[in-house]
Amino acid sequence: MTTWITNAWYVAGWDAEIDRTPIARTICGVPVMLYRKLDRSVVAMRDACPHRMLPLSMGLREGDSIRCTYHGLKLGPDGVAEEMPLKTDRVNKSICAETFVVAEKHRFVWIWVGEKALADAALIPDLWPCSAEGWAFDGGYYHVAADYRLMIDNLMDLTHETHVHAGSIGQPELMEAPIEARTEGDRAYITRWMPGVDAPPFWRGALKKDGPVDRWQICEFVAPSSVMIDVGVAPVGAGATLENHDQGVRGMVVDCMTPETETTMHYFWGMARSFDIDDAGFTARFKRSQGGVFAEDKLILEAQQRAILANPDLKLNAYNIDQGGIRARRIIARLMQPIQPTAFQKAAE
């Protein structure tokens, strides 16, 4: 039994990191090789030569095909053999490497490692700020040695900012402001409104002025494993509310956690913002600053995972602040359950 939903879209990489040179990445326990064809479309193939299972990511690109560097078997981008190790042998078209459905959206390359017939591009999580007019978006990647659900817990409980990110986005008011939790279908939400507080260093710099602000945080878990966090500040008196808050500086933290194994993940992070969108220098500095914040989370979560493995007789406890993570985990657990046949289907069988 795995800890993830298999029939779902996961981020395999940023659009910029997947190019003509093959890269290897394990997605939901499946070793995958990814590269771009000459037309720039992406190929995703099981990273194992069907001959002697040398990783195909070690292979040589020839046109849109890949040649294994062990015995020279050549496979097309559809995974089907094009040349045998001995060129005098007739090509056996039944020799194939498994391929996977991929799609590009919101600056990410998405992969479906489950049943191909169920791979509907309409099911790709709607990370709308990453592609919306009037927003700028960029981010980075970390490999994290922790269960991907621990990162979801972390992002759906921002009280940790007070202690983990005290020098950038944390402030004591995070521990004092009430939170509201709700679940809507396959999404979970945590909202927090902090009126009349001092802006933390990052947001004070983004607003470019001092003085009390109204601050908001709206965490949204999107199945199977993404979290978007609507964050920002507006000067007190500007008219911002929890429902309408474009009066100050607003950003959307975008996080996609792709399971690698039961205790490791690929963490794709970024920030979309609707202010200073034409300032490329600010975008680069912003990315560097955000990367530092998430490096602090990486340190905490990897230590937490080590402690979990070292204490198998103990279990995680949940307090009131953990409502978001609990709701997200319940959604994941529900979607992992196999679909039960209806009475009509049973009768037909």
TrEMBL record:
Domain (Rieske) ranges: 9-111
Enzyme Commission number: 1.14.13.82
EC class of the enzyme, as a word: oxidoreductase
GO molecular function, one term: vanillate monooxygenase activity
InterPro entries on file: Cholesterol_7-desaturase, Rieske_2Fe-2S, Rieske_2Fe-2S_sf, VanA_C_cat
Gene3D superfamilies (UniProt xref): Naphthalene 1,2-dioxygenase Alpha Subunit, Chain A, domain 1 (3.90.380.10), Rieske [2Fe-2S] iron-sulphur domain (2.102.10.10)
Bilayer-spanning residue ranges: none
Keywords: 2Fe-2S, Iron, Iron-sulfur, Metal-binding, Monooxygenase, Oxidoreductase
Protein known as: Vanillate O-demethylase monooxygenase subunit
